[in-house]
């Protein structure tokens, strides 16, 4: 079936969600519920924009539009798109959604979203006892590991041992890379080549390289410079510190979400959702 009009996001419309909600129930359901309570829609038009402006349009908060593109023909959407968007919304609702003056928190929000597929695929491998190589995400990271000369098997098995630790490592690595790209753009007089050479070395040395696969590292930085400006207000730096502190102090993803106050965020959204239903 080809969808013509947009439809409300529902659990059964999300491909793969039934599997991951068994692997990590609290986290997977929270990522979906945060969008459902805000009445997010699956919109066939949104995918057309994504095709033209791929990663650029995919980035950022879609809290205002509340529309997501289809992933496949029909009326379903891929789990990785929904979870990524869900995380952006949770972080946005916790630390604010304003863009101007907040380049660092906006970058961090993106960096928290990028390694999500790594976390869920490693958790699935841990729970089921084998690596699901035939999914498109895994095919991509296997290919990228090869291209970069990194040992996929060794790195992924390590991630399988402690998926949240691997996720945290990936967030910090990718955030460090994005911050340096931001600095390169920010500096008026730069030896760009020297800085890029140092950055290439850092990329080659990173352990959790899985996250580069589905987004070129430069795109979020371009989004941020265009939408947030180059300078941080004080609240931006404070939010980044607070968020990273909570991440460091958490031992599991569920722990991280609970420490962020996700239950309270969801309860408030659900309350306003049901009161608007009553009014209608
Ligand atoms: Zn994103």
β content, as a range?
under 5%
Low-confidence stretches: none
Radius of gyration: 19 Å
| Percent helix | 55-70%
Number of helices: 15
Globally, the shape reads globular
Spatial strand order of the main sheet: 1-3-4
Small ligands present? zinc ion
How many beta-strand elements?
A: 5
First CA to last CA: what distance? Answer: 30 Å
Coarse structural class: mainly alpha
SSE ordering: EEHHEHHEEHHHHHHHHHHH
The averaged pLDDT comes out at 84
Reported for the largest beta sheet, the result is: 3 strands, mixed
Overview of the molecule:
Helix content is 67%, strand content 4%. The chain has 280 residues and is mainly alpha-helical. A three-stranded mixed beta sheet has the order 1-3-4, with helices on one face.
List keywords for this structure.
280 residues; mainly alpha; two-stranded parallel ribbon; 15 helices; 5 strands; binds zinc ion
Q: Brief overview, please?
A:
With 280 residues, the protein is mainly alpha-helical. The protein has 15 helices and 5 strands. Bound molecules: zinc ion.
Lay out the secondary structure:
Elements: E1 7-8, E2 14-15, H1 17-23, H2 25-36, E3 41-42, H3 44-52, H4 54-58, E4 67-68, E5 77-78, H5 79-95, H6 103-113, H7 116-128, H8 136-148, H9 152-161, H10 163-186, H11 192-205, H12 218-227, H13 234-249, H14 253-260, H15 262-279
Helix pairs in contact: 1-2, 2-5, 5-6, 6-10, 6-12, 6-13, 7-9, 7-10, 9-10, 10-11, 10-12
The structure holds zinc ion.
